[in-house]
Predict the 3D structure of the following.
Amino acid sequence: MKIGLINGPNLNLLGSREKDIYGSQSLADLQAILSKDFPEVDFTFFQSNVEGELIDCIQKLGETCGGIVINPGGYSHTSVAIADAIASIKCPVVEVHISNIHSREEYRHHSITGSKCVGVISGLGFDGYSVAVKFLSKN
């Protein structure tokens, strides 16, 4: 199965950014963990700080993948355009947040993009990505 893994703004700084919230592992560590734990999955990994690039990737992977795991970062709370891109594709999308968005600032409590996903996982750290991949692999 092909699964796209899309990470949004500032997630390229994992491992060095706000370790008390996001931990000390990097985006490369996440990719290595998922590739090791799910050898049967053909992953496409993508990260961008640019909203339009994320939209282009969603549209492209929506045509070629059986599912997408996305962490839109701060765009979760602001981007109608990314939500529209998710709604426009046929493959299922699961939104993942490393931290618990409901225990953080008020503006993080609502996910515009998550409303267009089949599910949202929040607060499980990197394990949230694994749960999303397991779910998509079964469907």
In short: Residues 51-64 form the longest helix (14 residues).
